[in-house]
Amino acid sequence: MARVVPRSGAPASFADLTEQLQPAVVNISTRQRVQVQGGGQNPFAGTPFEGLFSGPGGQPTTREAQSLGSGFIMSSDGYVVTNNHVVATQGRNGTIEAITVTTTDGTEYDAELVGTDAQSDLAVLKIKRDKPFPFVNFGDSRQARVGDWIIAIGNPFGLGGTVTSGIISAVYRATGGGGAYDRYLQTDAAINRGNSGGPMFDMGGNVIGINNAIFSPTGGSVGIGFAIPAETAEPIVRKLIAGEAIERGYLGIQIQPVSEDLAASLGIPHNRGEFIQSVVPGGAAAKAGLRAGDVVTKVAGKDVTPEQTLSYIVANTKPGTRIPVEIMREGKRMTITATVDTRPSEDELQQNFANPDDNGEDGYANPRTDGDQSFIAETLGLSVTPLTAQIARQLGVSEDTKGLVIAAVDNSSDAAGKGLRRGDIVLTANYQEVGSVSELEGIVRSAKNDKREAVLLRVQRRGQPAIYVPLRMR
User: Fold this and answer.
1) Where in the sequence is the domain holding 404, given as residue range(s)?
2) Given this model, what pLDDT does residue 256 score?
3) Is 76 annotated as a binding residue?
């Protein structure tokens, strides 16, 4: 293998590059009017301002709020790119009264909000003056490599134009937040509150990322910052400027990564593919024949991995496109063709997978011994009883539902750690229905004989959709 000889040392200085780029980087502030409910939690409790905003008799009143962030000018006629959360209202009852963009020479401009996209956390503003603005261009984030030098310019803590430098620590980093755009450039350049919406530049002076978030146990920079790749941001920004609708692909499934425990229960490698927890009735996945319990390994010819999630692949597929979906179902591999639907709004998505509040304690008796309860208790940390029509009515499920009701959970077990509790209904184990303790016992013993480390239960909780839970056996 040929030896790679690095260039000697870091760049001698970032000063020339900064001098060229900084005039196009701006500070953004908003002034908002937020309605608050009198008598509720006071954000100023315990301070000299406590009670200042409470209306008489607990009536709603309003208070002024501000937000600070960063952005950059992307065209000579004054289009400005930033994060949506920099200019978003605080709460459902907030209204934006003014957005101000301040350039490096201290000039303030009233900004017009051109468009926002909450799902990608992007927004575009417009400012005006008689002469052209200095601006910067989007680069190609696909060419970014781990170890490349970058600089970030922004408005941390409201201090004004601040430059930090570092390298790209990771590309296409998934933070675990889920969603269609959980795919970032990671950097060790100092990113702090107020840097949101500011640009990440490569050494050619191109914007390859938009600083968006940090990981921090302290609230300050610990060297783990995240930027939206230009590859993701630029097409969305162009559509916002053009006033075009932003359509994303959608299958209508609720998914989770294949964790180590889940992989152990299925006997497959972990960190490959994503597990379908539930399917929206009448959605694209349901129409194609996808089911809860399927493991999606490949979509449209692309492997599903932590760096290339199913949500990302589908969201970036044009609605109406027919795509092959490779899955593993009960140990068998198969391919299903699905027609991609249009992704709903975030509010509609929450309604699709809404979980009503639990209605409280159950009222059923102690478990019956129709199987080896001691084995189940020892292996899974559960005490279960068959689901009768009477118990089904008490738990609010159909009387013909088949399963086992959890009567007790060992606090030291993996079941307790996964959140299982008294009143949950076990519908299946390793995809097989369980109507008796002996059936569950047989499935668990078989898994142990196959050297499995976990068993996969499908569990129903009062008022909530059934989910799959992998339980590590003892």
Assistant:
1) 373-472
2) 85
3) no
